[in-house]
């Protein structure tokens, strides 16, 4: 049930939910301050989607790494960026990461079953938003969650 809500509260909730796991790996999480932005989204489900993406960043970033969260506004969307300096994703595999139960071949030793990104995309798309991924192997990944500024 999307409603107009503060994006900062959404980001803060996702960070709180992943903070302990990040602390255990000594990963620094930085929230870049920006203007107070609002978008239309379901608070509970969208927090789950952002958490799933952030949780993946923590899983695939080495100990002592860094994750930066940011938010900005385009004409029709609020764009939440989650940027890590983890191992990155091969360009050819980026379309695969949103498939149900997909796991990178090198990820056998990392917890999970391959549902987090699939669910995140489904949640965001059901709210008329979309997710973008930019990645370079060995240097990290940036995932953008785009949420509608206005009621769709």
Task: Please describe the structure with a list of short key phrases separated by commas or semicolons.
single chain; 29% strand; alpha+beta; 5-stranded mixed beta sheet; 3 helices; 152 residues
Explain the layout of strands and helices.
Elements: E1 3-6, H1 7-24, E2 28-31, E3 38-41, H2 43-59, E4 66-73, E5 77-84, H3 116-126, E6 130-136, E7 140-148
Parallel strand pairs: 2-4
Antiparallel strand pairs: 1-3, 4-5, 5-7, 6-7
Helix pairs in contact: 1-2, 2-3
Question: Your description of this structure?
Answer:
With 152 residues, the protein is of the alpha+beta class. The protein has helices at 7-24, 43-59, 116-126; strands at 3-6, 28-31, 38-41, 66-73, 77-84, 130-136, 140-148. A 5-stranded mixed sheet has the order 2-4-5-7-6, covered by helices on one side. A two-stranded antiparallel ribbon has the order 1-3. It is globular. The chain starts with a strand and ends with a strand.
Helix-strand topology string: EHEEHEEHEE
Strand fraction? 25-35%
Helix percentage: 25-40%
What's the rounded overall pLDDT mean? 90
Unreliable sequence segments: none
Report the structural category: alpha+beta
Strand order of the largest sheet: 2-4-5-7-6
Strand runs, count: 7
- Report the major sheet: 5 strands, mixed
Distance separating the two termini: 12 Å
Number of helical regions: 3
C-alpha Rg, in Å? 15 Å
In one word, what is the shape?
globular
